[in-house]
Amino acid sequence: MEMLVCGFSIVVTYWGIRVRMVSRGQWLSVLICVVLLLKAEGVPVGITFVENAVAKGAVCLDGSAPAYHFHKGSGAGINNWIVHFEGGGWCNNVTSCLSRRDTRLGSSKKMDTQLSFSGFFSNSKKFNQDFYDWNRIKVRYCDGSSFTGDVEAVDPRTNLHFRGARVFAAVVEDLLAKGMKNAQNAIISGCSAGGLAAILNCDRFKALLPRTTKVKCLADAGYFINVKDVSGAQRIEEFYSQVVQTHGSAKNLPSSCTSRLKPGLCFFPQNVVSQISTPIFFVNAAYDSWQIKNILAPGAADPHGQWRECKLDIKNCSPNQLSVMQVFRTDFLRAFGAVGNSPSKGHFIDGCYAHCQTGTQETWLRNDSPVLGNTTIARAVGDWFYDRRAFHQIDCAYPCNPTCHNRIFDQNALPDV
């Protein structure tokens, strides 16, 4: 992601900050600007390990305790809760799960002990008008199945634990004991694979809370669609089928879908959303950058790297590649049609090249944030949650929206998750 800070071009990655083309003497000025930016827009929150979950078998891939980051609410928001599930892709077999097991995506022992909360999780009324004083929780992702897996057996040769659904239940139980049992309002949310988790667990989350709690769900960049890649292969359908089989997820997917379709197909929101009874809001880019990079044009379908520069920056795409991406948008909107226009199901579908927009201040609520119908994501979600108005907005085709924050990827950075 690239932004302009204090006149310098700053590239923010998952693993740090790079500054494009500055002299050695300018570094101090840049550093001061970045520190001030982070101080204004984010607050560090420490980690909590759910140690008592281990006895229940609710563990990460490596058998370590699940974890979350909890920023307590205050004032009028003391009994309001946001429980957000982190993203990070999936593992579909023993080999790919082993590659995650000893990383932050498979072990709480490898996780950062602090995360910065901003955007939807900010405690500043200026930056998060409707939810700043709520209890805000980020649940770390370490199971590789969007919190759906549950296999009892553990192979001693790999020590892999497929227990995502147990982690989900254990974390919610822990939060209930810490005050969520008194919740007046609650939102389950997630980004990417966590956004998919919010969709698949939406009704389950509501069922675990008191009947008097107003519960809604928010999926950010979680609407993954079932399409062929640029080589014509149905790669993502096969991949999801393998995820579900490896993790034993079928029994934890909505039965309204698994009673009709193969379990792997029930990992696609388009086959699930019409049966969700709990109110839910979708934030998604029609040109979702993760899906373009990993579903439409994955490396396996592009052996000569013709899509590489295009995937790094949409401005680098050729006319032919843009045409293919416009077809992807059409396919996305067709799949999204399953949501319908019920007042309880809101959506903000922008025409940006982006992925996960609620947890970043620049896309959630700032003077230059993306807008649809003169409305920011923050305002749209707040209006929908508090029943001020329904919100169903789908953007025009790229590049018509000048407010987009289109992602620019560092070619040396780790793959997007």
UniProtKB/TrEMBL annotation:
This is Pectin acetylesterase. It is found in: Secreted, Cell wall. It comes from the Eukaryota. Keywords: Cell wall, Cell wall biogenesis/degradation, Hydrolase, Secreted. One of its GO terms (cellular component) is plant-type cell wall. InterPro entries: PAE/NOTUM. Belongs to the pectinacetylesterase family. GO terms for biological process: cell wall organization. It comes from Phaseolus vulgaris (Kidney bean). The keyword NADP does not apply. Its EC number is 3.1.1.-.
